[in-house]
Design a protein that fits this description.
- The chain is α+β, with helices and mostly antiparallel strands and 104 residues long.
- It has three helices and four strands.
- It has helices at residues 7-26, 38-54, 87-103, and strands at residues 57-59, 63-64, 69-76, 79-86.
- It has one domain (7-103).
- A hairpin with a 2-residue loop joins β3 and β4 (79-86).
């Protein structure tokens, strides 16, 4: 269920979720050749967190719904909501974003 929040704030939550996932993946040993991107992503993540704190938005730990989906509960302006993602859609988006970072 989505909370009634502005599009910009939903976009900020999406950016947070994708950035956290990308940092987690790049910290894995098999992606050592892309380790130079981790400080850049951590800086972006810090900026996103500051904006979220100013807007009183919190994203909780993901909840495994089943083998196919994961949910991210969040709180914004006193409302509770969740964002549900298909795992393969997250992977696809992370691949696109990684490609953009690598190509500059």
């Amino acid at each position: 269920m989505n909370a009634p929040i502005p599009k910009e704030e939903k976009h900020l939550i999406y950016e947070y979720i994708y950035t956290v996932n990308m940092v987690g993946i790049l910290e894995h040993k098999k992606f050592e050749k892309y380790a130079y991107l981790i400080p850049v992503l951590r800086t972006e993540l810090r900026e996103i967190k500051v904006k979220m704190k100013d807007l009183k938005i919190e994203v909780e730990e993901p909840v495994q719904v089943d083998d196919w989906f994961v949910e991210y509960p969040y709180r914004a302006h006193g409302y509770h909501g969740t964002m549900r993602f298909w795992k393969f859609a997250i992977k696809l988006e992370l691949n696109k974003r990684l490609k953009r970072y690598i190509e500059g």
